[in-house]
Amino acid sequence: GIEGVLEAYHRSLRSVQLYGPTNFAPVVNHVARAAAAVLDGSQYFVLLIITDGVISDMAQTKEAIVNVS
User: Fold this and answer.
1) Residues 6 or more apart whose Cβ sits within 8 Å of residue 49
2) How many Å apart are CA 64 and CA 12, to the nearest integer?
3) Residue 57 CB contacts under 8 Å (≥ 6 apart), including other chains
4) Mean pLDDT, to the nearest integer, of 25-48?
5) How far apart are the first and last CA of the chain?
6) From CA 26, how far away is CA 32, in angstroms rounded?
7) How wide is the angle at C-alpha 40 spanned by C-alphas 1 and 9, nearest 5°?
8) For residues 52 and 44, what is the distance between their CA atoms, to the nearest angstrom?
9) What pTM did the predictor assign?
């Protein structure tokens, strides 16, 4: 549930070091492929993106999010 997502977020803040370049499109596509492989609906996937605000592949990331949504 949402509590688990928030817990994972808070835990990751203590251990993540942000640096660039930041390319999210490959990550979005990878998670989408993993989610698509679960055909029976028994699982759900949450992709939490933590960034310093600088996304190197913004156009590709936007396109990936639109394509997989």
Assistant:
1) 24, 27
2) 24
3) 21, 22, 23, 24, 25
4) 91
5) 20
6) 10
7) 25
8) 26
9) 0.70
